[in-house]
């Protein structure tokens, strides 16, 4: 997969793109990331990428010309998707990350200042938000999206099977996990996990996923329950007050 990030601060990505699984995936050629600075496409001597909004207002807006020129300078695969990182976009979640992995090229535009000229939206295929809050720059959500997509690509995670059992993959939060020692400061690893009975362990883990999602994320719980109510009945002996 090719990812092109339109950013005023390419240096922001230097360390994250060289670290951990993300760095290894890029080294192995599982994905490539290109950083494009819109200032390189300005025509004035000050390389100005922002300007005052028509009608007045607080702050500055990203100008359309440098962004359009930066995007149009890129080689484009037939299925390339252009993504604008903005608080007004659809929330980023695991399901959306999975959908984005099917494309061979993602072009990600990082927002800045008080926003951007509305005409920049005409470039985009997607508008995506990290959540209902505002950050100092669009590089942070762009990095989160880049990390989330690349880790799902085949070969990035050593044991791809483990991706199936993470939080949100089944619509539920992940189950509790433990390692040695079996007792630490009075907290004991649940006996079922030390029993060697894989069927019992699988059932315990699923019941914990249901219990944890219900108590911590009511929004996820209600959505999952719509199509899985029979499963709750099946696990009623293990659950409290279901």
Search tags:
242 residues; alpha/beta; Alpha/beta knot; Trp Operon Repressor, Chain A; 2 domains; 5-stranded parallel sheet; two-stranded antiparallel ribbon; elongated
Topology, pairings included?
Elements: E1 2-6, H1 20-27, E2 32-36, E3 50-51, E4 61-62, H2 64-72, E5 81-91, H3 94-100, E6 105-110, E7 126-129, H4 139-150, E8 183-184, E9 187-188, H5 198-216, H6 218-234
Parallel strand pairs: 1-2, 1-6, 5-6, 5-7
Antiparallel strand pairs: 3-4, 8-9
Quick rundown:
The protein folds into two domains: about 1-150, Alpha/beta knot, CATH 3.40.1280; about 165-235, Trp Operon Repressor, Chain A (Orthogonal Bundle), CATH 1.10.1270.
Describe the structure.
The chain has 242 residues and is of the alpha/beta class. It has 2 domains: 2-150, 3-Layer(aba) Sandwich (Alpha/beta knot), CATH 3.40.1280.10; 166-234, tRNA(m1g37)methyltransferase, domain 2 (Trp Operon Repressor, Chain A, Orthogonal Bundle). It is built from 6 helices and 9 strands; from the N terminus they run βαβββαβαββαββαα. The longest helix is centred in the C-terminal third of the chain and has 19 residues, at 198-216.
CATH topology of the largest domain: Alpha/beta knot
Parts with pLDDT < 50 across at least 5 consecutive residues: none
- Shape estimate: elongated
The major sheet is characterized as: 5 strands, parallel
CATH class of the largest domain: Alpha Beta
- The H/E string reads EHEEEHEHEEHEEHH
- From the N-terminal CA to the C-terminal CA, the straight-line distance is 44 Å
Q: Structural class, please?
A: alpha/beta
CATH-scheme architecture of the largest domain: 3-Layer(aba) Sandwich
Number of domains: 2
């Amino acid at each position: 997969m090719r990812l092109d990030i339109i950013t005023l601060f390419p240096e922001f990505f230097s360390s994250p793109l060289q670290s951990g699984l993300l760095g290894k995936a890029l080294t192995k050629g599982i994905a490539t990331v290109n950083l494009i600075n819109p200032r390189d496409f300005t025509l004035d001597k000050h390389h100005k990428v922002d300007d005052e909004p028509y009608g007045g207002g607080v702050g500055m807006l990203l100008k359309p010309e440098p962004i359009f020129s930066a995007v149009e300078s890129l080689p484009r695969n037939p299925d390339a998707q252009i993504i604008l990182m903005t608080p007004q976009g659809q929330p980023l979640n695991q399901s959306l990350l999975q959908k984005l992995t099917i494309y061979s090229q993602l072009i990600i535009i990082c927002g800045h200042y008080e926003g951007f000229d509305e005409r920049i939206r005409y470039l985009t295929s997607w508008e995506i938000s990290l959540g209902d809050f505002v950050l100092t720059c669009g590089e942070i959500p762009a990095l989160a999206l880049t990390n989330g997509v690349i880790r799902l690509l085949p070969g990035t995670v050593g044991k791809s099977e483990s991706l199936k059992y993470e939080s949100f993959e089944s619509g539920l939060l992940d189950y509790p996990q433990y390692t040695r020692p079996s007792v630490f400061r009075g907290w004991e690893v649940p006996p079922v996990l030390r029993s060697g009975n894989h069927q019992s362990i699988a059932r315990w883990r699923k019941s914990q996923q249901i219990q944890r999602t219900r108590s911590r994320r009511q929004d996820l719980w209600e959505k999952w329950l719509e199509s899985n109510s029979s499963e709750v009945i099946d696990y009623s002996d293990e659950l409290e007050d279901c």
